[in-house]
Specification:
Three copies of one chain form a homotrimer. The first copy, chain A, is an alpha+beta fold. The first copy, chain A, contains four helices and 18 strands. Chain A has two domains: 114 residues, Rieske [2Fe-2S] iron-sulphur domain (Rieske Iron-sulfur Protein), CATH 2.102.10; 215 residues, Naphthalene 1,2-dioxygenase Alpha Subunit, Chain A, domain 1. In chain A, the strands form four sheets. A seven-stranded antiparallel β-sheet of chain A has the order 12-18-17-16-15-14-13, with helices on one face.
Amino acid sequence: MYLKNAWYCVSWDKDLKDQPLGIKILGQKLLIFRKQDGSVAALDAVCPHRYAPLHKGRLENDILQCPYHGLEFNSEGRCTLNPHGDVIPPNANLRSYPAVVQNLAVWVWMGDPDKADPSLLLEEQDWTSSDKFARGYGYTHVRGNYQLAIDNLLDLTHGPYVHVGGFGQEPRKMGLKYPMNHEFFVEDRKVHSRYYRENWRTNLFFRPFFPHDYCDQTTFMCLHQPSNLTLDITVLEVGAENGLPSEFIAPSFHFITPETETTAHYFYAAGHNKLIDDKTVTAKMMEGVRVAFEDEDEVMIRDVQEAMESTDLLSLKPAILESDIAGVTARKMLAKMIAEE
Amino acid sequence: MYLKNAWYCVSWDKDLKDQPLGIKILGQKLLIFRKQDGSVAALDAVCPHRYAPLHKGRLENDILQCPYHGLEFNSEGRCTLNPHGDVIPPNANLRSYPAVVQNLAVWVWMGDPDKADPSLLLEEQDWTSSDKFARGYGYTHVRGNYQLAIDNLLDLTHGPYVHVGGFGQEPRKMGLKYPMNHEFFVEDRKVHSRYYRENWRTNLFFRPFFPHDYCDQTTFMCLHQPSNLTLDITVLEVGAENGLPSEFIAPSFHFITPETETTAHYFYAAGHNKLIDDKTVTAKMMEGVRVAFEDEDEVMIRDVQEAMESTDLLSLKPAILESDIAGVTARKMLAKMIAEE
Amino acid sequence: MYLKNAWYCVSWDKDLKDQPLGIKILGQKLLIFRKQDGSVAALDAVCPHRYAPLHKGRLENDILQCPYHGLEFNSEGRCTLNPHGDVIPPNANLRSYPAVVQNLAVWVWMGDPDKADPSLLLEEQDWTSSDKFARGYGYTHVRGNYQLAIDNLLDLTHGPYVHVGGFGQEPRKMGLKYPMNHEFFVEDRKVHSRYYRENWRTNLFFRPFFPHDYCDQTTFMCLHQPSNLTLDITVLEVGAENGLPSEFIAPSFHFITPETETTAHYFYAAGHNKLIDDKTVTAKMMEGVRVAFEDEDEVMIRDVQEAMESTDLLSLKPAILESDIAGVTARKMLAKMIAEE
């Protein structure tokens, strides 16, 4: 069902402050907190004594107090105090998970701790720290299996049907074909899905940043298995080479973390290299992204999940189109990785 | 569970305009739309590509566009366009269902299309088009198995207990018997349940149409298997023959369509042959009907469904009264028809 | 799952007036009503004819009328009238249950009626009728297995973690032990859990009744199997003997009745022997109790129930502390009683 030996996003780094965070991922309740040295601890979130929700407890000096009977735990999950007696039972400890910060996000390794491999993290992206970019963040709870959210991102042909609102795409005339210049390839644990459009009407969503009616647009989507995607959009003047001052670059993250079999967390962030000092512009862009993901994609994914009555798309033998190649390949790759694990 | 080779009501004719309608019946998601020639198409409502809800798609020139990736389907369910490539997979077509308009309603045949038999439709009723009648319409979602709604209609002894509100019936004094003059018979696929009352206090609900304190009332209920009922009420002056100018006639439809095992659609319409030009009177009558069905019957049916914890009433071995004869007979008839199918 | 041969609380005596009461206990829908002689009848709440909710019916002269078709039942559950025919089927009667009033509450015996034993009722407590006490009442619906509510009461070490609000307890400093002087013993069907504190800072909750900064406090909790608890708190001046005029006594009831496997009814009442003529003080005390039980305990129990994903705590092999002795003993006792039954 899930690949365990992998890094999953549980929070934006900036959102993990002095309160512990409770989150369910891969069907397990986890507790995340910031340690005094700035690093992050990830522990099982349920007290082994009476199953209380530990993320509702007090956190002081890297020690967490259970909100029910006051057992205390350190950042490795060891029970350090039973306030009511002399004995700490050997099964009163919490499982801990490797956790790191990278690419603006907090990541947890859900499999064998000895196999936790930092090289499997998405490599640090320049735009996350560059002063040439402004950045915004968001989160959407998805009422569908995480692979539906991945499919949705790997096949962007849905844009002009689903995103007439948030991304301001023009709806398609019926009865016509709209082939896209699409490139697809697999590399290690990555699935690339790239779209090229030349002399294309500039998307309304990009107009504040790129004031030309027509453009050449490149859209690079990459899935880093099992469930984290990067999307890099570049908008150029028609026929221009990359690197001109007018070039608009919008990189983004789409980190999907399974919550249960039929729900997922969707952490997204986006940057832009124009109008970077105008916070209103960034806020407006992120509101468009929120509408697109929350009011448009998520509603579709929820409808699909409900209609499927399953989490295994391929077992339903759907009609498969050429445009499904990235999504189907990603599903088969992941199924193989899970089976090998 | 359901009789498949039968016509089920999915909408009032007047309510099916230029937007496609999504409705679940017999556990299946259907899509209904009006064709340009005025006839009706009924298709499976889930896209065979990615399980998107097709009733949320665009409809133009009898072609429906999937709201997710834009596949197009004609009114027979054939996929006519894949906008993103050259191939339309053979399994990209939708199942279609025979659909017709009759008696103010849209009907769908859920079984073998080759067996779709117009003679099994409820025969056209005069009052639906006569200028001697005014008409009103309604719909209630029922949180109970469809057979509970049928039972409720076939045994009208519940009136003075359940309908003290909407139908303004006088509650019964406790400790007394209230035998009704009841006639019951079966004819082909029909179950008739008829009640006669002579020199009876006129129901408050009928007073605007029939301004006499006492009346002779005949109440003819007929189930057309599997789940569509007609109710014809006639109110006469005491001892009068049918046909006097003061005769009040109120025919009505009660079309029940199973949605799931424990929910149903209830389409109702009613006519009246007095004050037919006063829309306020019709509206007030229909509001009384709505209160009776939605706030009184439906709440009772929901409570009963919850208490039964089953959909098979007879298997629970309930106490059976003489007044249950029509309902029990109808259940046994339908069980036999389903078994034969 | 449940002990059947036992008395369960279904209502406060004062709350059972002239309307019948419907309540689900031990998974069964019951109907309770007050008879004209002041005693109480308890019957199955579902009509054997068509599964209608009888507690919504009319009650006159100890006769209950079904709200669907008007069948009438007497207080022993016998069907006394079928208003629509001559025959009352033999299976049209309702099961009745022994029911009595004691300790301000209405009690129903859910097992074999021949074994209904008044001596198994909680013995009448003086404070329920004494003019030396004022009294208040409450009810909370608990979204957890009834045994979680019992555990919560038998181990009061949770107070300073959970009840910083309603009971105004001071939160504990982290890193320190807080051993309590605890006495535990079993006696017949009772489990006693007693706490003694000397020279203790007076709880804010008791200050209106006991205006001293420090006190000796005794807290006697007793479970009467299967699920009814008494709690007697006495607050004395430091070093004083019982019986001084300043002695503050707060007895209370905590009657837990299983509703379903994962929900319970919690009826609570409390008395106080100071300021007994000031209804504002009683109301304020009961509001503090309500906050503690409803907003604090109940939320914790719900979280625990959800995290356990089971109703059998011990089968999960939790970490067990010395402070769990009363709860664990009570669970083992009850499991044995249920197995013997």
